[in-house]
Design brief:
The protein is mainly α. The radius of gyration is 20 Å and the shape is globular. Helix 3 crosses helix 6, helix 5 packs antiparallel against helix 10 (232-253) and helix 6 (141-158) runs antiparallel to helix 7 (165-173). The protein contains 12 helices and no strands. The termini are far apart.
Length: 297
């Protein structure tokens, strides 16, 4: 089995960013494999799904210990996402491994990246509503299962969606849930989701073991390091710009010309910069009271 040192280092960078920001690796790892290492889309998607299955348990353990996993939501998400993810890998298999099939899959992947990036940017720009203690929690089963079906299918087909599309759709259904609850819930359901997609890749024969081993070898330790070094303010700054890079990668996949990509890059940078300024958290009055009580101020 051949291990590519350069791929290990690149995977470590992606794993570090995933651990640091909590964002899904599908929007980062798959474009890197296709654009920088020339891996076919089907092999890149399959390898990323397997690596994701090994990366996610750490984050789930942290969120479970903090009590931020909504078990009822996880159950109904999995009811839709697990079978849909397996079907997604089957649909990818139907596309075949011919150059034309890989090209079609690359376009589909590009569309998924654009949708995922748009969802991540929207979540960054749209302020979250404050939770109301008097608002009862209502389990919207049909909506949750539908989110699971759509997100699971996209993950199985493209490896993109668990950390972007599903998370944003959950935000729309449960706007008063805290961000850590949304992330913990999405992360918990993504383990059985990626397991189903991983089984599908083995059944339908898309796995390249040397490629997958290099990714796992680099990404797993880096995820741990990134999670240990993660800080809320650092993550808040980095996340939107990762979303911008994901958007440009998706547009590149669907064949947008270079000049148009440059224009999109400039507009995206301006929008994200303005959004970062507008959404900068303001200290609460209690913080100012504490600061005023500090000697010497």
């Amino acid at each position: 089995m051949h291990i590519d040192p350069l791929l290990v280092l690149a995977s470590a960078l992606v794993g570090f960013l995933v651990g640091l920001t909590g964002m899904g690796g599908g929007a980062l790892m798959t474009p890197m494999l296709v654009l920088l290492f020339g891996v076919t889309p089907s092999a890149a998607i399959s390898s990323d799904l397997i690596a994701a299955f090994f990366m996610k348990p750490l984050g789930v353990a942290i969120h479970w210990r903090r009590g931020t996993v909504q078990g009822d939501i996880v159950k109904f998400l999995c009811l839709g996402s697990v079978p849909a993810a397996f079907i997604g890998t089957w649909v990818m298999h139907l596309g075949g491994h011919s150059p034309s099939g890989e090209r079609r899959l690359q376009v589909v992947l590009g569309v998924a990246l654009v949708l995922g990036a748009g969802a991540m940017i929207a979540r960054f720009l749209i302020p979250q509503r404050a939770s109301k203690a008097t608002s009862p929690f209502v389990l919207r089963r049909a909506a949750i299962v539908a989110i699971g079906v759509g997100g699971g299918f996209m993950v199985g087909l493209t490896s993109v969606g668990a950390g972007s599309l599903i998370l944003v759709l959950l935000t729309l259904v449960y706007p008063t849930l805290r961000s850590d609850q949304l992330v913990g819930t999405d992360l918990a359901q993504s383990i059985p989701l990626t397991l189903a997609a991983t089984l599908g890749t083995f059944v339908f024969g898309h796995v390249q073991f040397s490629l997958t081993a290099s990714i796992i070898l680099g990404s797993i330790p880096a995820v741990v390091i990134g999670a240990l070094l993660s800080a809320r303010e650092v993550s808040r700054v980095i996340r939107p710009f990762i979303a911008g890079v994901t958007l440009l990668s998706g547009l590149k996949y669907v064949g947008v010309p270079l000049m148009a990509l440059g224009a999109v890059a400039v507009v995206t940078f301006v929008v994200l910069t303005v959004g970062a300024v507008r959404t900068r958290p303001t200290p609460s009055p209690e913080v100012f009271e504490v600061l005023e009580s500090v000697p010497g101020r």
